[in-house]
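Example record

One chain of 750 residues, shown exactly as stored in the release files.
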Amino acid sequence: MNEVVVSPDAEERIALKDYTEKAYLDYSMYVILDRALPNIGDGLKPVQRRIVYAMSELGLKATAKYKKSARTVGDVIGKFHPHGDSAAYESMVLMAQPFSYRYTLVEGQGNWGSPDDPKSFAAMRYTESRLARYSEVLLEELGQGTVDWQPNFDGTMDEPKVLPARVPNVLLNGTTGIAVGMATDIPPHNLREVVNACVHLLDNPKADVEALCEHILGPDMPTEAELITPREDLIKMYQTGRGSLRMRAIWSREKDSGDIVVTALPHQVSGAKILEQIAAQMQAKKLPMVTDLRDESDHENPTRLIITPRSNRIDDEQLMQHLFASTDLEKTYRVNMNMIGIDGRPGVKSLDTILSEWLSFRTVTTRRRLQFRLDKVEKRLHLLEGLLEAYLNIDEVIHIIRTEDEPKPVLMKRFKLSEVQADYILDTKLRQLARLEEMKIRSEQESLEKERDKLEKVLGSATRLKTLVRKELLEVAKDYGDDRRSPLVEREVAQAFSENELISVDPITVVVSEKGWIRSAKGHDIDPAALSYKAGDSFKFAVRGKTNQSVMLLDSTGRSYAIAAHNLPSARGQGEPLSGRLNPPNGASFEGALMGPDEQRVLLTSDAGYGFVARLADLFSKNRAGKTMLTLPKGAQVMAPQLLDNPEEDLLAAVSNEGRLLVFPVTELPELARGKGNKIMNIPSARVQSREEYVIAVGVIGEGQALTLHAGRRHLTLKASDLDHYRGERGRRGNKLPRGFQKVDRAEVS
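Predicted structure tokens for this chain:
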């Protein structure tokens, strides 16, 4: 025996970079072609195809008895799919869940999961399964020469490369998968609609996507929730093979209880998760209009979620719009119709391309089936021809068989038989030959000749073949088709409530202390000064408003700030420092606060005798550092801002520390968004800088109100008639107040 010596120099050396690149590419192609993407022919991934084929080999047809799922999984991974049993079983479960597959391929018995938790299925040693009736559409023609076969992973048996699907299952059940560098997300569709589109394409090979969309209205999920994607977007999705879908839950309001009842959820959405999402908003106090949630789903009502509004005055539509926008009651699905085409290559395909390629696959499959049957018919006719010859000469045939050592060549020569015919005659038992009747043979011959002629006509005519494909498609639609489940309804995009809309509207009083601590108390009837304060601290000012408003603050430098009132600390405690929420300049103090609607007019003034009217919204700032609102002349200080209830008719009263009072209409001041403002009272700037003269108080006097001035223990109340003496043009010095009020401490309007 000769030895083969391999020289060390004969070793193949390859760069690590080249090896890893090749290995990665090989792995990528394996995952793409043999793991993650469906084949356009049968719409199945390899693991799904192997499960269906293994079950058919086990005899688990729709009419058979159930068998343990572990038996099927064992056959799948032992014979065809050398991967984990859990992965194979999960694929099998998915094909059995009516809420996951539009047309289930497996029929399960036992716990196969639920819409709330699709992965709550029992272990495969407990569940039983068999093929669903729809699987016949994929398997019926398998043994009829319709598809190519390939060796399994260890070469001990063969498996089909693709199943001879009689409908485009790739669209009917859809699929999702992640490969290397690509993914697929194909939504399910309605069988009748897809078949009608195929028939239309057979009759009109040049039909475009828009024409096909007259039949395929859109995806059809295994749920009754609404598909709300606009038709234009659906057509564009089918034209490009990419896009997105939006589904929305179906709900109604019960007249008796006033509850909102959700009866259908989007595809692959859990009712338990929906309730969790809504409950989370309720706990975060972001959904005050809902008071209760419960799940009343049962066997009769698979989906029945109850949402109880706070009162009958709640707008159902607005509430549901918010829930659609903020929970999975409305869900978006990605569409990426990526699949392995009839050329064996992956690609994203448009609807017309998918149907055209599948019809090409179906036509070839049908032709192969007919040719396979024709070959069998011709073979049988050939055998019957020899059998008839033997029957007509039965005595001579028996004599030859009895007397000849090699009867086969003698029979072939004597009766002009082929080798196949001679073998068939010799293999036939004598009692069968004796029992054969000429009429039976001729009857079978006649029947087979008619079938042969019919098959040859169909195979010889493209038109007849197309007609047959069309007829068979319509038969499948009649046998397995059903009505659309997902209604198509165009809806506007849902809008969630803004933060202010979600906050309950309750009266509050916001209190700020001398050291800048803030808190809020419920109601408007509290005494802020009577609240408890930290040692060395005391009440400074308070403002009344509502929980859904912002508190506008003005500091001593003229900067304005905004804080949401609903999340301020309670007045039961001592509050929290404003410096924790805002970043005012060093040394700045807060001089006033305002609350109200955005359009509310306010008066901003400095004690230098300048001021202007602004809208409350102008003071708003998202910045922690606030924004410059009131520009201060040198040496001037900010005065507390004031609300203007009726700026068209209100009077403004300005009092200086020199005992002068000037009254004029508020309308004489300009309305600005920010700035220094116009002169209210004429005070020389040098006297302001030296703090010799400045405005001590500013009051806004409405109709029927009076101005009260306080000087020490003395006070002076000026009614409307008394104020006439002090009226003048804006920017004047004002008139002197009576003796004893040359040094006014403060002014009040009542």
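Notes: The two ends are 125 Å apart (CA to CA).
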